[in-house]
Specification:
Shape: rod-shaped
Number of strands: 0
Largest sheet: none
Order of helices and strands: HH
Structural class: mainly alpha
Mean pLDDT: 80
Low-confidence stretches: none
């Protein structure tokens, strides 16, 4: 009976750890996606700012 209980608790712990790892992975991917989107928005903003100022040249597009 004691062996069964230890086995059950170990299995339950493993399931909980897998769930926590999955949550952490989701948070990591979400943060990565948000950082990429922020970078894209920053580049778009710089591009349109340069375009509206008339400063947009081929050279500035390559930076």
């Amino acid at each position: 009976m004691l062996l069964w209980r230890h086995s059950f608790l170990l299995g339950h712990t493993i399931v909980n750890l897998r769930g926590e790892m999955s949550k952490q992975r989701e948070r990591y991917v979400l943060n990565l996606d948000q950082n990429i989107q922020k970078g894209i928005n920053r580049v778009k903003s710089q591009f349109f700012e340069a375009a509206s100022d008339g400063k947009l040249t081929f050279k500035t597009c390559l930076k």
